[in-house]
Amino acid sequence: MNAEPLIAVDRLARHYLLGGEVVRALDGVTFSIARGEWVAIVGQSGSGKSTLMNLLGCLDTPTAGSYRLAGADVQGLADDALADLRNREIGFVFQTFQLLPRATALANVELPLVYRGEPRRERRARAEEALRSVGLGNRMHHRPNELSGGQRQRVAIARALVGEPSLLLADEPTGNLDSATGEEIMRLFAELHRRGHTLLLVTHEARLAARCPRAIRLVDGRVVSDGPGAEIGAAARGVRA
Amino acid sequence: MSSGGSSRRLAAEFAEGMRIALGALAGHRLRSLLTTLGIVIGVMTVIAIVAIIQGLDRSFEAQIGNLGAHTLYLNRWQWFASQDEWWEMRNRRPIGTRELEAVQRDAAHAVAVAPMAMTRAAVGYGDREATSVTVIGTNDRFLETGGADVAAGRFLGTPDVDLARPSVVLGAAVLDQLFPRWEAGQALGRRVLVGGRPFQVVGILTRRGQMLGMNMDARVIVPFTTFARALGAKRSLTIAVAASPGGVPALEDELVAILRRVRQVPPGKRDDFALNRQDQMLRVYNQLTGALYGVAIGVGLLTLVVGGIGIMNIMLVSVTERTREIGVRRALGARRRTILLQFLVESSLVAALGGAAGTVLGLGAAQLVALTTPLAAAVTPGAVGLGLGFSAAVGLLFGSWPAWRAARLDPVEALRYE
To answer: What single-letter DSSP state applies at residue B143?
Structure first.
């Protein structure tokens, strides 16, 4: 049907000015990701993976290069257009969950639909559906501080899914969780991948990258390898060891 | 479709802003209370002062009613004169019976003409005495010039004046002092002493209250002719001349002509008499209260500005505290406008709640003043609307900078904020 990849970045660069010196956080990366893929972006801290995530998530704009998301050019879009793009096309999952503390799980999940102007009743129904799909049908009216870490991350994932975006962008989603809970979340991602969602997992852990069908490894703002997750993960582990 | 969608989105954003604002208020009750205190006090001040001034206006209008609306008061001097004019007026010849007779004879536009000779005297009955009573010598036309109404008995008649009878009509306060409650009904026909001379009570005046600090009920009215004999005729008279409604300007011209002729004022020279009117008092009063209004509103605005700065301060704190939340909302698709709206809703809600509380307290304060002092208080819906509107406007105005700062936050930075 649609041959065009969901994500196509070409020589994407992001430079910062830090104390009069240009820092090349991202120094010209090129790759594309098709719909339905599960890709890890792996790298040490300072490798530029967070910068790349911010660019792919339309939270930041590149210094140079091009970025096409779902067939549309992202660079050069105005702030409002970027906000609308984030709302429709991207679901964020953060390391620190980033839930609103005073709002219930349901209200948190409804939020993207609020900014879409969805009527209250439909909003509620879809948010309930999303919470059920991550196994939190019985926790809808709890506030974040009444939930465990794993449950909070599930709420965040439900929030990312509720608007049916083309891309799920997860930034170290297991970083604040114990290994058992982290494993639970990874299994949930595998399940989402099976259901056809496009997933991008940003992580510094080679172990996690190894579980993704495909991984892109960044070093010093450049792509050093792009291939099956198992190979890249092993290579990354080898480098560290 | 797209405009319907965007207005629906705006409505949803507004509702969300309201939810956030209410949540924030509930989450920081003490802080919200302290923040709004400035607004509360500002609005309270304005409402209370405006209510008191409006109460004053009403009571002044009622008091001014003691003077006939269509009556000209012919005096030697003007009611409201500057110091310099005063010296000139002191030396004017008194107004006397010659002028009175000329006006009575020649003023075709006059509906009624009543002389008013005035002095202060003690009025006694038995062993009781009312001191410092205003004694007015006039004629039977006095009622038509709006000077008084009769509550019991009768007013002076033509025979009283023509025959210089010792008849007296008592003011309500004089009646109270001379005849305690149980004798009040029997006052008519009694003999009282006015300035040491016996007079017979023929009537009682309707109670009128105060006018500009004068007790309008501490007065007695006697025939003008009797006044001259008993209390002296040397004083300058006031002549009250009533016109038909709308006939005041014509009467004024006529009276000036008559007076200049009688008093032989040479052409080109200024009048050596004055025609005073009720609305002169209104003008002076309005000048006075206008200044008072200005001061009150100035103080109120100043307090509102101080309150506004308080709101700005707390909104800046609120924006800083919620930096990460702003980042999350932006990541989920909130536009800058959305964030701006969210914080504006919050600041104007805080201010409007403060305004509402201030209004209630201001009304209470005005009532308290009305109950504990002679000042009246009247509250108009306009004053309440003004207070509420102003406070919401202050919230918008002083909330806009913090809101703008919130809207301008970089989503990446905001999400990373600790």
So the answer is: G
pTM beyond 0.90, yes or no? no
Q: Is the pLDDT of residue B1 over 50?
A: no
Chain-chain contact of B27 with A102 (C-beta, under 8 angstroms):
yes
Q: How far is CA B147 from the centre of its chain?
A: 22
- What string of DSSP letters covers B104-117? HHH-TTEEEEEEEE
Task: Indicate if ipTM > 0.90.
Answer: yes
Distance from CA of A57 to the nearest CA of B (A): 8
Q: Does residue A31 belong to the interface with chain B, where contact is any CB pair within 8 Å?
A: no
Per DSSP, helices labelled H in B72-223 are: 83-90, 97-106, 158-162, 172-178
CA gap A50, B397 in Å, rounded: 38
In this structure, the number of other CB atoms found within 10 A of the CB of residue B174 comes to 27
Instruction: Reduce the DSSP state of residue A179 to 3 states and report it.
Output: helix
Domain limits, chain B: 10-63+283-416, 93-272
B411 contacts A117? CB cut-off 8 A:
no
Q: φ, ψ for residue A2 (rounded to 5)? A: -110, 110
H or E stretch covering B17: helix B2-27
Give the separation between CA A9 and CA A65, rounded to whole angstroms: 7
Interface touch A59/B329, C-beta < 8 Å: no
* Strand pairing category for A167-171 and B214-215: unpaired
Q: Distance (Å, rounded) from C-alpha B398 to C-alpha B311?
A: 7
**Which of B72, B74, B76 is CA-nearest to residue B272?**
B76
How does the average pLDDT of chain A come out, rounded? 91
A45 lies within 8 A of chain B by CB? no
| Nearest chain A CA: its distance from B386 CA (Å) | 34
